[in-house]
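Notebook entry, structure prediction.
Reason for the run: the old model in the group folder had no record of what sequence produced it. Starting over properly, with the input documented here first.
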Amino acid sequence: MTRTRPLRAVVVGTGHRARTFTRGLAARPGHRVVALRDPSPTRMAFHNRLLAEEGAPPATPWDPQDFVALLGKEEIDEVVVTTVDAEHDRYIVPALRAGCRVVTEKPMTVDAERCRRILDTVRRTGTSLRVAFNYRFNPVHQRVRALLAEGAIGEVLSVHFEWLLDVRHGADYFRRWHREKERSGGLLVHKASHHFDLVNWWLADRPSEVFGYGRLAFYGPDAGERHGLRRDYERAHGSRSAQDDPFALDLAAHDTLRALYLDAEGDDGYVRDRNVFGGPVTIEDDMAVLVRYTGGATLTYHLTAYSPWEGYRVMVNGSAGRLELEVEESRWQPPATTVAPGSGAVHGDTAAPHAGSARLTLRPLWRPPVEVPLNASHEAHGGGDPRMLDALFGTVDGAEAVPGERATATERDGALALVAGLAANRSFETGRPVRAEEILPDLAGE
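New structure, fully documented this time:
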């Protein structure tokens, strides 16, 4: 049957990241954002202004208590979830039960119990869930996958992945709700799920056992005192102590952040510019993880959230050679408190002012190394966002991006991306290796 009307979508959570989806859906003729769900009327009004800029009609702000009832009443076809990580399942599950197509921002959720609830709902309903892992759509990462699939380095034996968040972007996770592990799962869930999904996808494999060490080494009150970095304020706005603090965020100096957060504080009390050296902070900022895969390969992963530069290094070792990838998303950050394009608070929108290079080197056995040509970009998360939107919702001109759909992450992929981070978090607590089946037994035999 030919569809005669655009798919009707509701976007749940209207913070900064939601802009990708409200604008992306509004630009596609087969979709229409008809509703927004957020505790802040101010934030929802901001996104309606974005819709107006795209020439789209305004979306209806939904009452927080009526989500389930309104799914049917408003004939919703699609639900896009971009709210606080720990709240994802509250919207994914009823939307799946209502027969909606659901797209959720990463991570899919923050713990094993919520993950099992989502997986069980998918099985019972037979509905569709996609997780917005935009790293899969970065052309650089797709090139790596193609080389591995072609056997360029033979059998993959081990991977090393070093992720460096700089003192602007990394610090931003310690200003906002992400610093509370019960809400974000910590950086190994909220952030590293990107990387665990990418390695799972590259290897076409799943984690079997995980061990890790993690600690709060740089941020938080104790480390701030120890390193002589702490200033005495709770939040930056209105604080004289924060005026010359390079770790402070000036919300009032950036139109979008002011509109989304500072102007919205009276709605829900959310403070977006907390002191990174204040308390409480319950997540780690330095994590070392060892993962063994079912096929025998190993992954060593290190996340540092306080680096002078931002980017990542990946080394893939195989039976016939080695692939080396280095991406410099920001070579350094100046000690400025204003929000510049590419700073941590608006990460991914544009390239950082001090963005560096991207290099991919193939080092075969017994032959000279080869520099692999790259189509590299630092905007829109390495160019992944627009390609991901095409794969999820079709292209802007209305054509269906069928090949890209195969690269989108399913609920199983979302769960497997969680396993390594959740197992590492448990390993931090117990001091022992943790098998993946201890976290999500349902995935052990798949």
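Summary: The chain is about 30% helix and 20% strand.
The old model has been moved to the deprecated folder.
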